[in-house]
Amino acid sequence: MKAEERAGEPRRTNPGSTVTAAEEWTSVADPAGAASLLQVENLSVRIAGLHILQGVSFDVASSGVTVLLGRNGVGKSTTLRAILGLTPRNGTATGSVRLGGEQILGRPTHALVKAGLGFVPEDRCVFAGLTVAENLRLAERTDTPDYDLVFSLFPELSKRARQRAGSLSGGQQQMLSLGRVLLNRNRLLLIDEPTKGLAPKVVTEVAEALERAAQAVPVLLVEQNLAVVRRLAGDAVVIAAGQVAWTGPGEQLLADPALTKSLLAVNAAGGH
Ligand SMILES: Nc1ncnc2c1ncn2[C@@H]1O[C@H](COP(=O)(O)OP(=O)(O)OP(=O)(O)O)[C@@H](O)[C@H]1O
Ligand SMILES: [Mg+2]
Description:
By secondary structure, the chain is an alpha/beta fold. It has a domain of 168 residues: P-loop containing nucleotide triphosphate hydrolases (Rossmann fold). It has 11 helices and 11 strands. It has a 6-stranded mixed β-sheet, sandwiched between helices. Helix 4 runs parallel beside helix 7 and helix 7 packs parallel to helix 8. The N terminus is likely disordered. The protein binds adenosine-5'-triphosphate (ATP) and magnesium ion. Magnesium ion binds next to helix 2.
């Protein structure tokens, strides 16, 4: 029996979302009985002789935001890239990554994107010389790009459609980067440090945008800013020394300053 069949009736990932009934996806029940959309098991990544991930296991919930945390250089981006089939040629990724119960580790990135994995990389990658509208048009992957969703989440993009992306603020560029991914139908968004290097006011704007995006699509978010984590996180997964060192409700992690400090070397009250 297929995992999807075991899960019974299709579930709505978010009852209040703009996702239509026809676009609903199924999730599977994990062994503990809770619904999870993505299951990472014993993921190991070696790059250029370095054993960066050494058996990482965690689940991503089928709604809301799951946050991936850890000190600088611990392997957070490496984790997202391995899930997406973007481990570099001089590296290997082994273990298991299941999306909706189906094994996806080792599949080519283009197939994973087609299967509904949306990626917003750390460097945003907007085309600075093109307009907002052109950036969006280049991101269309189907005949029915969801401009209604994107413009309802980010009205600023509609207002600035003719503006060159290079002249947008950092926060607006991040919204464009999110908007490009949200144009297409996604099962899960993987978003890498969207607030990195942004001014505090813009961080708040981006956090609001992420909060709205997560109402439409579940998110696996790498985020170092603990104020943003506090605002968005459902579950938190902390990587240390190549493995998952802690997992549980984000609130619980942030409520324990000693734990936060030991795992992340930051003060939970102040952010990062
Ligand atoms: N292509 C690569 N070649 C060699 N080493 C790499 C490569 N990619 C990542 N690494 C190394 O793997 C480790 C993990 O890197 P990664 O970028 O995943 O960390 P991170 O947790 O995302 O860090 P940050 O918080 O700085 O974004 C680092 O030591 C990094 O130098
Ligand atoms: Mg990183």
